[in-house]
User: Fold this.
Amino acid sequence: MSAPDALLARAQAVAQQLAQIPPEAYRLTKQSLRAEALERIERASALRDQAALEVWSAAETHGHIRGYLRRTLRK
Assistant:
């Protein structure tokens, strides 16, 4: 932790240290840290997309849409 008056100097020192990490090592580390989260997001997206397709394709949903159109557009 840094005192408020030393915060900028500390942030610059940390930034300089991080800048010394080779870009390829940084890229690989970031990729490794994010991989599991990205896989979970991808799996959830596929499930969510399938669920949305099922809901919007259901006869009950189409009935609600037809009712809405009749009430609002008089069709």
Remarks:
- The CA atoms of residues 60 and 66 lie 10 Å apart.
- The mean pLDDT is 91.
- The helical segments are 7-19, 23-57, 59-73.
